[in-house]
Amino acid sequence: MDELQIFRTGVTAWLEANCPPSMRTPPGDGELVMSGSQVEFQSEDQRLWYERMRDKGWFAPGWPLDLGGGGLDAAHVRVLETEMTRLHCRPPQINLGIWMIGPVLLEFGTDEQKQTFLPPTARGKIGWCQGFSEPNAGSDLASLKMSAVQDEAGFVVNGSKIWTSHANHADYMYALVRSDNQAAKQQGISMLLIDMKSPGIEVRPIDLISGKSHFCQVFFDNVRVPAKNLVGALHGGWGVAKRLLQHERTAMSKFAELNMPGPDLVGVVRRACAGSEGRIANAVLRDKVAGLEMEAHVQRLTQQRIVEMAKARQDVFRAAATMKYQMAETEKRSAETMVAALGLQGLGWESEGFSPEELEVTRQWLNAKSLSIAGGSSEIQLNIIAKRVLGLPE
Amino acid sequence: MAMLFDSEQQLLADTARDFFAQHAPPAALRKLRDSKDELGYAPELWRQMIDLGWSAIVFPEAHGGLDFGYKGLGAVFEQAGRNLSATPLLGTVALGGSAVMLGGTEAQQAQWLPGIIAGESLFALALDENPRHDPSATVMSAHAGGDGYILDGEKSFVVDGGIADRLVVVARTAGTPGSSDGLSLFVVEAGSPGVRRQRRNMVDSRNMAAIRFDQVAVPAAALLGQAGQGAALLDAVLDRARVCLAAEMLGVAGWLFDTTVAYLKERIQFDVAIGSFQALQHRAALMHVALEMSRSAVLAALTAIDENSPQLPALASLAKAKLSETLELVSNEAVQMHGGIGMTDELDVGLYLKRARVQQQLLGDASFHRDRYASLLGF
Ligand SMILES: Cc1cc2nc3c(=O)[nH]c(=O)nc-3n(C[C@H](O)[C@H](O)[C@H](O)COP(=O)(O)OP(=O)(O)OC[C@H]3O[C@@H](n4cnc5c(N)ncnc54)[C@H](O)[C@@H]3O)c2cc1C
Fold it and tell me: What is the pLDDT of residue A254?
C-alpha cells in the first residue's frame, strides 16, 4: 500500500468512529453549523462532530499546522474530502473564513495578519462575512461606493453593505471599500478586515422569501479600521477580490459535493406519484425527472472531467465556466418539479397537515432561487462565457 | 486519466480530423447526393480508412484487430461527424462487428471479423420494424426449419442495409412483441434467396434500406449467442453503437456551433457584428454549456465501454439522450442565427441539420433514452 492509501484507510476508520450517524444524513435547511464566537448547536451530535473535527485541525485541513490547520497537501485533502463524501459526512461547520478569506490571507496577508486571524478562524473562533455588494453595486461590483478615508491610525469607513449573509452572527467582515475616488472604477478599491464589534456598525436583518433572515444590511458610520487590517496593496483590492472569487467557485462546487443538501428529486416525486415497483406513475413527471437527473449526471461528469483536466495541466476554463450556470439552473428546475409533484401539498407554509419533508421542499424551492443570483448571476455567467470563452464582441 | 484521451487516442483524433477534412468534407457528401449515388458512400474512402486500420480498432488481436478500444473508435466517429463524412463505420464496425465480437463463438469470430477488418465485408443490423426505435417491439419471426432457422418478416429502417453483404438480423424465436424475451440474432447473407432490399432515400442522403425477409433459410451456425436469449447481447451491441453515434453527433454539433459562432463575429447588421447583441450572446453561451456537458457524457460512456463498467447502459442512454437534445438545439440555432442564408441549400448548415435529425432518431431518440435511463435507475 502506498502512503496515500494508508492515509485513506486511517481517515475512513476515524470518520466511521467519530462522525455520529445523525451527522451522516443530508442536512435540512439551516442544519449546518455556522462557526464563530457565537456558534450554536442544535444537537449534541452536532457539537461532538464539530469539536472532533476542530481538534483534528480538519476545519482547514490544507492549512499549515502552525496556523491551526491540518497540514495536509492537496492530494491528502482530496482523500479526506472524497471519504467524507462517500460516507455522507456533513461538513462540521461553515465559515467563509476558511473557504474564502483564509486562502487569500495565506497568499496576500502579512505575517501579522496570518498569525492574528488564521489560527482562531481554523478553530472556529472567528466567523466571517463577506461585505462586497451594496445597494447600488451588485453584478457591477466595481461601482461600489462605501468609502474608506485614510488618516494616521488607519481608515474611517462610511456607507453601507447589503445582502451580507450572516452579518448578524459574524465576528469579522472582509469588505471592499472605495479608497480612491479619483481613480478608475477598479483601481480605487481596497480590501479591509473589519471587526463587527467596532463602534458605528449597525446590522439589520432582512427577511427572505423563504421566511429566514440570515441576510443583512450593514451600515457604517465613521467606523475606524486599523491600517494593519488592509489586505494586499492600498487600492489593490480588486485584484485580491478576483482571487477570492476564484476560491468562491471552488468552495461552491466542493460544498455542493460535500453537502448534497435537501430532499432528493427522485425520492420526492416517487413518493408523491407512486407506481408499481418504485416507478413514478405519472409519465409526464417521470420524463421530466429523468431529464433533470440526466442534467445533474452530466454536470457531475463534467466536474470529474475538469478535475482530470486540471491534473493533466490542461486549460479548464472552457469547461469550468459552464458549471455555475448548469448547477444553478438544474437545481432550480428540480426544486420546481418537486413542488409541482406535491401539488398544493408542496405549497404549505406552516401548520398541521404538512410533513417536515414537504415543508422542506417548499423552503428549498424558495431558497434555490438565489443560486442563479448570488455569486455571479446566471446572466453574468452567460456573459462570461460569451465574451471570455467564445470571444464574442462587446 | 479516466475521461480524457491519452496521447495515442489524441494522435488518432488528430489524424482523423485531418483525414476527413481532406478526403471526405461536406462537399463529398454533396457529390454523393447530387449524383444520386446508389451506395451513399465512397468505396475508395472506406479503403483508405481500412488501410489506416480504423476498421480494426476495437477488435481482438487474435482476429487481426488492434484491441485499441472504443474510445479510440469514438475519436474517429467524432471527426467523421465534424465533416459529415459518409462511411460504413456505424453499420459494419459499431453494430455488426460488435455483434460478432460480443455474441460470436471463436469460430464465428474467425469467420467474420477478418473480413470486416480487411474491408472485404460490410455489415448492417436489421432491427427496427417501426419508424421509432423499439427493439422489444420486434415481430419478425425465426422458427426451426431446414438445418437451422426460417426467418420471416420485414425491417423498415436498416442503416447501410443496401450496401451490406451480411445482415445481423433480430428475430423472435419465442415470446410476444412488446417483450424482450425470445429475441435471437442471426447473421444472414444479404444475397440469400428470399431477401428483398429497397433503398430508402432519407434527408441525410446516407444509405438506408427497407428489407423484406420471405421464408429465408439460414443454417444453425448463423445464430449469434443463445436462441431466445438475444436481448442482453442486443443491448450490449446497441449501447456500443449508441455511444459511437453520440460521438459522431458531438462532431456534428461541434461543427455547427463553431460555424455559427464564427458567423456571429463576421456578419454585420446595424453597423456592428451581430455577435455583439446580448440576445444572441446568451443563446451562444447556452449552446456552449450544452456542448461541454455533452462532451463529458460521451467521454464517460466511451470509457465505460472500455472498462466494462456496469454503468454502461445508463451512460449510453445518458449520452444518446443528451446529444440528441444538444444537437436539436444547436442545429436549429445554427439555421436561425444565419438568417436567410441559413435556409439555402448552398450553405452546409442545412446538410448538418438533416443529418442531425436522422442521428437523433437512430437507435433511440431523447425520449426513448430518458425512459430507459429512468427504468435503469429504478424509477
Ligand atoms: C442568498 C444570497 C446570498 C448573498 N450573500 C452575499 C454576501 O454574503 N455578501 C455579498 O457581498 N453579497 C451577497 N449576495 C449578493 C449577490 O452577490 C448579489 O445579489 C449579486 O451580485 C447580484 O447583484 P444584485 O442583487 O444587485 O442584482 P443586479 O446586479 O441589480 O441584477 C439584477 C438583474 O439584472 C441582471 N443583470 C445585471 N447585469 C447584467 C448584465 N451585464 N447583463 C445581463 N443581465 C444583467 C442580473 O443577472 C439580474 O437578473 C448574496 C445574494 C444572495 C441571493
Answer: 65
Closest-CA distance, A91 to chain B, in angstroms, reads 28
Helix (H) or strand (E) holding A135: none
CB B254 within 8 A of CB B330: no
- Measured between alpha carbons, how far is A336 from A358 in angstroms, rounded to an integer? 13
Number of structural domains (chain B) is 3
Domain final position from A72, A105, A122: A122
A276 inside domain: yes
Is this complex's ipTM strictly greater than 0.90? yes
pLDDT at A1 over 90: no
Question: Is the minimum CB–CB distance between B5 and chain A shorter than 8 Å?
Answer: no
Give the domain extent around B219. Answer: 124-229
CA-based nearest residue to B180, from B243, B124, B104, B235:
B235
Q: Are residues A134 and A115 in the same domain?
A: no
**Which of B212, B229, B246 is the endpoint of a domain?**
B229
What pTM does this model have?
0.94
Between CA A171 and CA B171 the distance in angstroms is 73
Q: Which atom of ligand 1 is nearest to the CA of A367?
A: 1
Tell me, yes or no, if A302 comes closer than 8 A to chain B by beta carbon: yes
Among the residue ranges A254-258, B106-110, B312-316, the one predicted with the least confidence is A254-258
Same domain (yes/no): B129, B219: yes
Q: What is the pLDDT of residues A137-174, one digit of tens each?
A: 999 999 999 999 999 999 999 999 999 999 999 999 99
Query: What 3-state class would DSSP assign to B53?
Result: coil
Distance of CA B83 to the CA centre of its chain: 15
